[in-house]
Amino acid sequence: MLQKKYARVVSLLAERAGLSYEQALDVFYHSVTYDLMRNGISDMHCMSDGYLVQDLLDEMHNSKMCVNA
User: Fold this and answer.
1) What is the pLDDT of residue 17?
2) CA distances from 11 to 8, 46, 65 (A)
3) What is the pLDDT of residue 23?
4) Is the pTM above the cut of 0.85?
5) Contact at 8 Å (CB) between 9 and 56?
6) Are 12 and 60 in contact (CB under 8 A)?
7) What are phi and psi of 20, to 5 degrees?
8) 19: alpha, beta or left, given left = phi > 0 and alpha = psi -120 to 50?
9) DSSP string covering the chain, please?
10) Which of these, 10, 34, 6, 4, lies nearest to 23 by C-alpha position?
11) All structural domains of the chain with their residue ranges
12) pLDDT per residue of the chain (69 residues) written in tens, 0 to 9
């Protein structure tokens, strides 16, 4: 079930950040948010898709995460 949630979050991240799906996927899989979700820490996997996307956007902004074109 988490794979479906990952797909929704990546799709929404791409839409909100103006990224390609591949770029959003790269951001997601290299994020602290993904690590927390994958490891079941802080029940991140229970948070709404919108909350998780905002968390990813904040993480991108705060870490100045580089997005490969």
Assistant:
1) 96
2) 5, 18, 18
3) 96
4) yes
5) yes
6) no
7) -70, 165
8) beta
9) -HHHHHHHHHHHHHHHHT--HHHHHHHHHTSHHHHHHHTTGGGGGGS-HHHHHHHHHHHHHHHT-----
10) 10
11) 2-63
12) 789 999 999 999 999 999 999 999 999 999 999 999 998 888 888 999 999 999 999 999 898 655 654
Given a contact cutoff of 8 angstroms between Cβ atoms, the answer to whether 26 and 69 are in contact is no
Q: Closest by alpha carbon to 14, among 31, 27, 30, 32?
A: 27
The CA-based angle 52-58-43, given to 5 degrees, is 30
Residue type, position 39, single letter: N
Predicted local distance difference test score (pLDDT) of residue 69: 46
Q: What is the reported pLDDT for 41? A: 83
